[in-house]
Amino acid sequence: MAIATVNPATGQTVETFAPHDANEVDRRLDQAAAAARELRSAGFRQRAEWLNAGADILAGDTDSVARMITIEMGKPIGQSRAEVAKCVRAMRFYAQHAETFLAPEALDDPSAVGASAARTIWQPLGVVLAVMPWNYPLWQVIRFAAPALMAGNSGVLKHASNVPQAALYLDSLFEKGGFPAGAFRTLLINSSDVAEVINDQRIQAVTLTGSEAAGRSVGAAAGHAIKKVVLELGGSDPFIVMPSADLDAASSIAVKARIANNGQSCIAAKRFLVHTDVFDEFARQFTAKTSALTVGDPLDETIAVGPLSTQAGRDELAELVDDAVRHGASVLTGGFAPSGPGFYYQPTVLTDLTADMRIVMEESFGPVASLYRVEDREDALRLANQTPFGLGSSVWTTDADEQQWFIDNIEAGAVFINGMTVSFPELPFGGVKASGHGRELAAAGIREFCNLKTVWKA
Q1: Which residues contact 448 (CB under 8 A, 6 or more apart)?
Q2: For 168-218, how does the pLDDT look when each residue is reduced to its tens digit (9 = 90+)?
């Protein structure tokens, strides 16, 4: 795949970038390795000063960076500005809390292990390679980079080939904030080159956000090289609505949860499992609100839904919908790609879904919602857990016992009660089953790329 900015609103190529050759990759890995040694000894206070300075720069660049994001991958401009703000917040969060998260912990009774003193300490691993997707071009990177740098690691980024301008912006951001040259480096390489980089002795750990197939490939390469790996993969998140739910609030948030980022989010609600007692009314409200969404140029402030990021992505989504319709699914709204330029797909609601339809088990990455009628909470749970994925989930009920039952039994990395699944710097993020393993964000995220060292003294 060419490394290029292709505006998904028009289908036109804006700019093409030459891949880095082997010599340039080697030079950048050398820079990252040297910077890792320097960062290890810099101390938390110095690293926090540099990270806060980088956050100031990013905040000052909000308008230009947001426009760049929208042109590269198509999200509405307001959501691009919100992504920049979220990155700034995460950078400041780790600058403030990293030292506490990685504080040494002494054993209360060292005599129990025959020592005069015993403790554990967290130390950086070295150079961390990140393989990142296009759907949140800055946020996916910052949520790895901010904790990794604050822990004293350096970072190397292999970004998606359709967001090279975002990748190159990040290549210079941290150095502008004061970090040593090479503390964060972008590699403009193709996916076929990733395994070789993982195997390089200068790389100590790997993190990937992407598809299940990409996770298997990167996970296998990291396993072969015996290197730590964190995988955040796909999701087919359930959004469960029980009879006690506030249907107006639930249906409004359901639309936002499905359509945010043009529906291209791993933690977007994708399957709506609605109790039969409230199914008809929820379906009416949800369909009406979805039908009212405006679709068009994502640089227009009034537009709610922009194009999908690539033609291939739009075509894959259309194939899932067409397959469902061929097998008897009902289309309550949408179900087609509008005519004209750009990679648009009309927001869609499907129901009457059966097991022979691909969309039942596969992730739909775009503005398509699958609506299911369920008889009771056991039926809802069965459908919630039947897919290979287990990233996020949302449950709408005011019954406290029912809330706890779903919390205990849903197979997912997160359960949000009466709210939309969202990632926060303060909360761990990640999944189970085919949605991956390991955690990002919060204390867990910064500790993933550290060595927990035991210290024992006689």
Answers
A1: 205, 207, 228, 230, 438, 439, 440
A2: 999 999 999 999 999 999 999 999 999 999 999 999 999 999 999 999 999
Question: Among 257, 268, 253, which residue's Cα sits nearest to residue 363?
Answer: 268
Burial of 453 (0-12, 13-18, 19+ CB in 10 A): exposed
* DSSP element (H, E) containing 147: helix 139-151
User: Where does 111-182 show beta strands of DSSP type E?
Assistant: 117-124, 127-131, 154-158
Cα-Cα-Cα-Cα torsion 188, 191, 196, 197, nearest 10 degrees, comes to: 40
Q: Measured between alpha carbons, how far is 146 from 448 in angstroms, rounded to an integer?
A: 13
Q: Which of 266, 362, 363, 448 is catalytic?
A: 266
DSSP structural state of residue 300: S
End-to-end CA distance of the chain: 58
* Tokens coding 190: 């193709």
Q: How far is CA 182 from CA 35, 133, 191, 192, in A?
A: 5, 22, 22, 23
Q: Give, in degrees to the nearest 5, the angle at Cα 400 between 399 and 404.
A: 120
Distance CA 295, CA 305 (A): 5
Selected catalytic residue, list 232, 363, 440, 448: 232
* Burial status of residue 413 (CB atoms within 10 A of its CB: 0-12, 13-18, 19 or more): buried
Whether 232 is catalytic: yes
pLDDT digits (tens, 9 = 90+) for 328-364: 999 999 999 999 999 999 999 999 999 999 999 999 9
| pLDDT value, residue 377 | 98
Which residues lie closer than 8 Å to 382 by C-beta, 6 or more apart?
none
**Two tokens at 449?**
């790329």
Looking at every residue in the chain, the average pLDDT score rounds to 98
Active site residue 266: yes
Q: What is the pTM (predicted TM-score) of this model?
A: 0.97
Of all helices (H) and strands (E), which one includes residue 349? strand 348-351
Q: What is the pLDDT of residues 232-255, one digit of tens each?
A: 999 999 999 999 999 999 999 999
Tokens of 29: 């890995």
For residues 98 and 122, the answer to whether their CB atoms sit within 8 Å is no
Ranges of H-type helices in 177-246? 194-199, 212-225
Q: Please, which residues have CB within 8 angstroms of residue 100's CB and are 6 or more apart in sequence?
A: none
Residue appearing with tokens 């403009």: 188
Helix, strand, coil percentages for the chain (3-state, nearest 5): 45, 20, 35
Please write the tens of the pLDDT for every residue from 26-46.
999 999 999 999 999 999 999
pLDDT at 1: 75
